[in-house]
């Protein structure tokens, strides 16, 4: 790897103008492309202390061997040039929002002489129109079956088509009326192409003409006493209505909009986009990408916290996604021969039709969680692509805000499912445990891993969690939670002291646990409910057996505190490490430098999942304790009230606020309260 100081530009050599920069490796390949309002300010960030850089950024500057830049006239030009270079060089350290390859789609091969409709899953190909994506494969097949009732176009493979063309007789679909059988000349290729164009128009949202035509034909057939034909047309109309019902109306005003939302952690980001056209959800797409470069964040993201790098992620996505979409639409104009012929017949030039396509691809409204970075410049680029005005905004209330929240939930669920999929992979879990063993120099893979985390607010309500993973999966029946005694109540945060206390309380019977009968403990626990144990400071339930790996949430100070407890208790058979949130560094006791795992390694992913689970569990318990304290603190100072009577009061009146408004007589009606105690409670509450 190269030393960044060897290719760092001379001070003052970098201009302060807006521009685009490229990092190249030793083979002159472009590995990262970025843009900046001020090139000097942005590039100087890459040449600071390596320990202060995000791990992915650090890897990039160590891989690079040179940096170069191009000055442009405006920030809008910088956005455009950045996109162009990313498309051209495909840099390994840039986020690429490529189409999700897992969603099934309905495809129409418009590039063939006799087009066909078929189910498809995979990368987009030239000469094929795609509709969707759909949530399930059966949804595509059901839609295709309904469509062929009204638009009887070819759906067979090329080999089947050629065979029936030679035989001179149609397949079963031709006999039952779900294909107009161009293979035997029942319709001409031009007539079949017209059917295909009507289907494409219908799938693009032009449903009204089809519905009107079917209604008119059904009424004419009924008037002419052609009842069988009228019944068939009625069934066709029902099929069309069923397809249309699959796209429910979400906005009554016929809005055209795209709604975009992200969900992210420090390693990955999930993005969801809902396409709403004429007030209906016409499509949905999703990606999960690795966070790299300027879009990465080195800061730990607490639950509920806003991601500070979300505006940069959103900017990157908007430029890349819509630029790609417009390019694809323009290519389809050239490749779709039938559509081009139709355009020519209507006397519309290609440029005007391309503009119409861009307007359809990029809607008037783009609704987002937060405004993108450099929002005015992003709007300028998209307006140039669309050829019309665009409104990017954050909805605050109403139906649009509610739908955006739905998109956010989809993004969160997508990221969660992505992680669960990796966790559920036995091969990935085994590889992760093996990588952890090798990285930490353990004698065997850590089949049982325990992790602890501390949660508090400015030193109050200090609690800790202990989560257990066996074979890479959580074992919730062995979870523990602790109320910290020694480090609480001094008005300050002392994570180091809290880590020491939790470690001591967890391992004080370590040698006894080793002598326990694991089979007996496992047999007992198999019949027990997965109930979380709250450990007291004096006693606690015995663990079935000790872990091979114990993780504390924190860096070198926390690890040193836990190691001191290990030394005090004589524990030498458990590997101890700390996982620091900021840079995902693994700290080993007595080592000056941390262990850095590759960002895409299964080992790091598993360690993060364990740490995040401990953090979630600690936060949940802390909120419970804080909420309980806040509910009861007002009543704690009233003489004569024990825990049970305080609980009875709050349950009877619903809240302390309602209790303060009660009279002496109303308080006396509570079970266990006489006139004297009721008067004491009333007087005490009036003076608070």
How would you describe this protein?
InterPro entries: GIY-YIG_endonuc, GIY-YIG_endonuc_sf, GIY-YIG_UvrC_Cho, Hlx-hairpin-Hlx_DNA-bd_motif, RuvA_2-like, UVR_dom, UVR_dom_sf, UvrABC_protein_C. Pfam families: GIY-YIG, HHH_5, UVR, UvrC_RNaseH, UvrC_RNaseH_dom. This is UvrABC system protein C. One of its GO terms (molecular function) is DNA binding. This protein is of the alpha/beta class. 47% of the residues lie in helices and 16% in strands. It folds into six domains: 86 residues, 3-Layer(aba) Sandwich (GIY-YIG endonuclease), CATH 3.40.1440; 106 residues, no CATH class; 40 residues; 162 residues, no CATH class; 196 residues, Nucleotidyltransferase, domain 5 (2-Layer Sandwich), CATH 3.30.420; 50 residues, 5' to 3' exonuclease, C-terminal subdomain (DNA polymerase, domain 1), CATH 1.10.150.20. It is globular. The chain starts with a helix and ends with a helix. About 5% of the residues have low confidence.
Number of helices: 25
Terminal-residue CA separation: 67 Å
What's the total number of strands?
19
CATH superfamily of the largest domain: UvrC, RNAse H endonuclease domain
CATH architecture of the largest domain: 2-Layer Sandwich
Oligomer state equals: single chain
Low-confidence stretches: 336-340, 342-348, 487-493, 517-531
Strand content: 15-25%
The CATH C-level class name of the largest domain: Alpha Beta
In helices, the fraction of residues equals: 40-55%
Task: Output the radius of gyration.
Answer: 33 Å
Mean pLDDT: 77
**Into how many domains do the coordinates divide?**
6
CATH topology of the largest domain: Nucleotidyltransferase, domain 5
Class per helix and strand makeup: alpha/beta
Major sheet summary line: 8 strands, mixed
- The global form is globular
Domain UVR: 208-243
Family: Belongs to the UvrC family.
Domain GIY-YIG: 16-95
Subcellular location: Cytoplasm
């Amino acid at each position: 790897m190269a030393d960044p100081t060897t290719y760092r530009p001379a001070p003052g050599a970098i201009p302060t103008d807006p521009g685009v920069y490229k990092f190249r490796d030793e083979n002159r390949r472009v590995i990262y492309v970025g843009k900046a309002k001020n090139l000097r300010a942005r590039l100087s960030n890459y040449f600071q202390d390596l320990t202060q850089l995000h791990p992915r950024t650090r890897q990039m500057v160590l891989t690079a061997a040179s940096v170069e830049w191009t000055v442009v006239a405006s920030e809008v030009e910088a956005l455009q040039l950045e996109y162009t270079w990313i498309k051209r060089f495909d840099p390994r350290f840039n986020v690429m929002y490529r189409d999700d390859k897992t969603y099934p789609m309905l495809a129409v091969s418009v590039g063939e002489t006799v087009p066909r409709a078929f189910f498809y899953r995979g990368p987009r190909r030239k000469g094929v129109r795609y509709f969707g994506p759909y949530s399930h494969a059966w949804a595509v097949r059901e839609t295709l079956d309904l469509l062929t009732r009204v638009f009887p176009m070819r759906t067979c493979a090329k080999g089947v088509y050629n065979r029936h063309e030679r035989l001179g007789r149609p397949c079963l679909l031709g006999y039952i009326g779900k294909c107009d059988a161009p293979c035997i000349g029942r319709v001409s290729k031009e007539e079949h192409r017209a059917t295909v164009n009507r289907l494409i128009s219908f799938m693009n949202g032009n449903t009204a003409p089809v519905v009107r035509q079917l209604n008119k034909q059904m009424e004419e057939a009924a008037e002419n006493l052609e009842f069988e034909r009228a019944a068939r047309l009625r069934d066709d109309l029902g099929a069309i209505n069923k397809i249309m019902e699959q796209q429910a109306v979400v906005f009554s005003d016929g809005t055209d909009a795209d709604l975009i939302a992200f969900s992210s952690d420090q390693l990955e980001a999930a993005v969801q986009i809902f396409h709403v056209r004429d007030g209906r959800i016409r499509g949905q797409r999703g990606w999960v990408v690795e966070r790299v470069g300027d879009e990465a964040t080195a800061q730990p993201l607490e639950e509920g916290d806003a991601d500070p790098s979300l505006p940069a992620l959103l900017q990157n996505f908007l430029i890349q996604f819509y630029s790609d979409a417009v390019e694809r639409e323009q290519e389809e104009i050239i490749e779709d021969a039938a559509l081009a012929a139709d355009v020519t017949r209507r006397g519309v030039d290609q440029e005007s039709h391309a503009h119409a396509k861009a307007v359809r691809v990029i809607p008037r409204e783009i609704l987002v969680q937060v405004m993108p970075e450099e929002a005015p410049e992003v709007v300028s680029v998209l307006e140039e692509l669309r050829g019309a005005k665009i409104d990017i905004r954050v909805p605050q209330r109403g139906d649009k805000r509610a739908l955006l929240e739905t998109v956010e939930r989809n993004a969160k669920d997508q990221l969660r499912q992505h992680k669960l999929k990796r966790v559920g992979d036995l091969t990935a879990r085994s590889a992760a445990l093996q990588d952890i063993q090798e990285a930490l120099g353990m004698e065997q893979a850590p089949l049982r891993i325990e992790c602890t985390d501390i949660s508090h607010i400015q030193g109050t309500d200090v609690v800790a969690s202990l989560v257990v993973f066996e074979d890479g999966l959580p074992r919730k029946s062995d979870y523990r939670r602790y109320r910290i005694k020694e480090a609480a109540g001094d008005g300050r945060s002392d994570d180091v002291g809290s880590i020491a206390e939790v470690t001591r309380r967890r391992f004080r019977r370590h040698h006894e646990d080793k002598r326990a009968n694991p089979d007996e403990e496992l047999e007992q626990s198999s019949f027990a409910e997965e109930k979380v144990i709250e450990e007291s400071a004096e006693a606690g339930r015995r663990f079935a057996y000790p872990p091979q790996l114990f993780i504390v949430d924190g860096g070198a100070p926390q690890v040193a505190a836990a190691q001191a407890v290990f030394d005090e208790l004589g524990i030498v058979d458990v590997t101890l490490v700390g996982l620091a949130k900021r840079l995902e560094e693994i700290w080993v006791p007595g080592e000056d430098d941390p262990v850095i795992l590759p960002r895409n390694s299964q080992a790091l992913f598993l360690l993060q999942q364990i740490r995040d689970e401990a953090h979630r569990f600690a936060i949940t318990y802390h909120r419970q304790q804080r909420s309980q304290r806040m509910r009861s603190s007002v009543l704690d100072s009233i003489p004569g009230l024990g825990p049970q009577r305080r609980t009875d009061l709050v349950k009877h009146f619903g809240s302390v606020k309602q209790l303060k408004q009660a009279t002496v007589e109303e308080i006396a009606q509570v079970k266990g309260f006489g006139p004297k105690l009721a008067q004491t409670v009333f007087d005490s509450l009036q003076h608070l």
